[in-house]
Amino acid sequence: MGHTVEKIGGTSMSRVHELRDTVLIADRDAPYGRIFVVSAFGGITNLLLEHKKSGESGVYAAFASGDGDHGWLAALDRASDAMIEAHRAVLDHPGDLERADAFVRDRLVGARNCLIDLQRLCSYGHFRLEEHMLHTRELLSGLGEAHSAFVTTLMLQRVGIQARFVDLSGWRDTEQVTLEERITGAMAGVDPTTEMPIVTGYAQCTEGLMREFDRGYSEVTFSRLAALTGAREAIIHKEFHLSSADPNLVGADAVRKLGRTNYDVADQLSNLGMEAIHPKAAKTLRQSGVPLRVTNAFEPHDPGTLIDDQPAPTPAVEIVTGLNVFALELFEQDMVGAKGYDAFILEVLTRHRVRIVSKVSNANTITHYVDSSLKVLRRVEKDLVERYPSAQVSSRAVAMASAVGRDLEGLAVLSRGLNALAAAGLEAIGATQGPRPVDVQFILERTALAPGIKALHGALIEQTAQPLAKVA
């Protein structure tokens, strides 16, 4: 049947000891034929880089700020303490704890010395610190995955599993290799049928994963590993089921596990900030013919949701989700019949690295719904006004609720959705449905997003869909 490549995320990794006998060793009589890719323990990457949500400085952010040694050295000590605390929650044998402590000391002292040497080098005028910051970010980030993979290997070896630590982080490696070369070189001689490889989610390579994917790199490593090794299935173990809506919004009894969908739906969800998998990782799996399964790590006997390239057997809305966005609008009375407006707006948005979620236009107005901060949008507006001084340029905080499915043909999702919103006392600012029947978007006031999702889910899924297995 071939092997599987399976990924465990950071939040689940913090409870990896709970998953030892359910996910990692699902079958004591046949434990092999599985390759695991692991993220850092929960919260560790925030301490090594910066907090993903609050922006609070970690080691990287403190080092990049250039405020002196005290800030980043103190941050490195905090990261070290947290890493030790994380593996003490997982390991209990004194010998394993000693090895894990030594691993943290070796890696973090090495990183400390590297950063000090880099500061010293860049004190000379011929060298610029900013030219090395991306490599610094990758170095620090890789510490978290290397630590969690090493600790997981120790935990499994202690109970008799032939686990192998596979380090893709390039620690003290002087060679410059591509991602494919890094993976194939590390996996050479590894036999998944007789041992269990525990692979770091970060891989050092010439492409520089963080340049394009930043903290989404582990899914890229995971998907490429699955493709290169010819996995029969790629599996992501999350802390929840991939379901028809957020149970906190519509109720745990109302949501339904998807059970099965395709990569097209996964891409739509990614566009709305609800990633089942990074779209570039999904592309790798899709082109390699490797199906993806998303499971709840803490419900190991549930098969989860299978994602492949197959169409839906019947039309249905599968999921309702939403995202806070800004409506960036450019109105120019003289736009009609003229060319170049749209191209310049796109160029400005690209230059400021603003992510476009959706777009609508008419004769004299172009509106982009974007996922960005207001601070960045003010710079975008300034550039647009300088180019088109007679235009009216504005940004408005709104929300987008979207009904998504493999096939929405013939379901009248747009009209039924608008009626559901109206029945709930909510007003749609706008609504969009493209020719391809895979999603319908409803623009709402931000305060209306949660009740809007609940209303749409009730009308489009609860009242029409055949119940799948409910989310526990």
From TrEMBL:
What's the catalysed reaction?
Answer: L-aspartate + ATP = 4-phospho-L-aspartate + ADP
One GO molecular-function entry: aspartate kinase activity
What SUPFAM superfamilies does this protein map onto?
ACT-like, Carbamate kinase-like
Q: So which residues are the signal peptide here?
A: none
Q: What is its EC number?
A: 2.7.2.4
What are the record keywords, sorted? ATP-binding, Kinase, Nucleotide-binding, Transferase
Which Gene3D superfamilies does the record associate with it? Acetylglutamate kinase-like, VC0802-like
State the superkingdom: Bacteria
Aspartate/glutamate/uridylate kinase domain: which residues? Answer: 4-296
User: Which is a Pfam family this sequence falls into?
Assistant: AA_kinase
- Please state which protein family the record places this protein in: Belongs to the aspartokinase family.
User: What is the protein name given in its UniProt record?
Assistant: aspartate kinase
Tell me the organism: Paracoccus marcusii
